[in-house]
Amino acid sequence: MSFTQDLAAQTQGLRRQIHEMPFNRELAAGTLPAEVFRGYIIQDAHYLEGFARALALAAAKAPDGQAVAQLAGSATGAVAVERGLHAHYMGLFGVSAEAFAASEVSAACDHYVSFLLRSAALGDFAEAVAALLPCFWIYRDIGREIAGQSGPENPYAAWIATYAGEAFDDSVARMLALVDRIGAAADATTQARMHRAFHRACWHEWRFWDSAYHRELWPEVGRVA
Ligand SMILES: Cc1ncc(C[n+]2csc(CCO)c2C)c(N)n1
C-alpha cells in the first residue's frame, strides 16, 4: 500500500461524510441556494490567497528544484485558476470588488488558513505537504463524483467542470506522487505527524463546507445572564 493509500484508508469515514454533506448533494443537484454559494465563493476567495501563501512557504522548504517548481507552480495556479472561477461566480452573484474587500473572513476559513500557514511555516516539508494534500485530493474526488451526477443546466457547472477536469487532475496526481515520495522516505515519527496533519486538513475541508452551508461568519457569543 502506498503512503497516500494509507492516508486515504485512515480517513475514509471522514471523507465519505464530506461527499454526503448537504452542500455537496445540493451542488450536484443544482439546488444549492444561490445565497449559500455566494457566501462560499467569497470565503473561498479569501481561502485561496492563504492557500497559495502556504504553498509558497512549503516550496521554499522543498528538498529539490523539481519540488520547488511544482509547489510554486501550484501557488500560481491556485491564484490564477481560482480567480477566474471566482470572477465568473462573483459576476453571476453580484459580488462587487468593494463588497468582497469589505467582506469578513469566516472563523472556519480563518482557522483552515491559519492551520495551513502554521504547518508550512513551523512544520517540516513532510508535514507541510501532508497538510496541503486534502485541498487537492478531496476537490478532485468531489468534482468527479458530482460531474457524473449533474447536467449542463446546473448553475454550478463551471465549478464542477474545473475540479472534474484534466488540468486539475494532473496537478492532483503530481501532489499525490510528491507526498508518496516524501512519506515513503520519512521515519515513523515524521509519518505519524504527516497522518495527523492530513487528518486535520480533511477535517478543515469538512468544516469549511459545513460553515458555508450554515452561512456562519463568527458564531455569536451568548449573552451573559
Ligand atoms: C476550501 C477549499 N479547499 C480546496 C479548494 C481547491 N483548491 C483551491 S486552490 C487549489 C490548488 C490548485 O488550483 C485547489 C485544489 C478550494 N477551492 N477551497
TrEMBL record:
GO biological process: thiamine biosynthetic process; thiamine diphosphate biosynthetic process
PANTHER family: BIFUNCTIONAL TH2 PROTEIN, SI:CH1073-67J19.1-RELATED
Enzyme Commission number(s) of this protein: 3.5.99.2
Function description: Catalyzes an amino-pyrimidine hydrolysis reaction at the C5' of the pyrimidine moiety of thiamine compounds, a reaction that is part of a thiamine salvage pathway.
Coiled-coil intervals, chain numbering: none
NCBIfam families in UniProt: salvage_TenA (TIGR04306)
Keyword Hydrolase carried by entry: yes
Pathway: Cofactor biosynthesis; thiamine diphosphate biosynthesis
Protein name: Aminopyrimidine aminohydrolase
Catalytic activity field: thiamine + H2O = 5-(2-hydroxyethyl)-4-methylthiazole + 4-amino-5-hydroxymethyl-2-methylpyrimidine + H(+); 4-amino-5-aminomethyl-2-methylpyrimidine + H2O = 4-amino-5-hydroxymethyl-2-methylpyrimidine + NH4(+)
Family recorded in the similarity comment: Belongs to the TenA family.
Domain Thiaminase-2/PQQC: 10-214
GO cellular component: cytosol
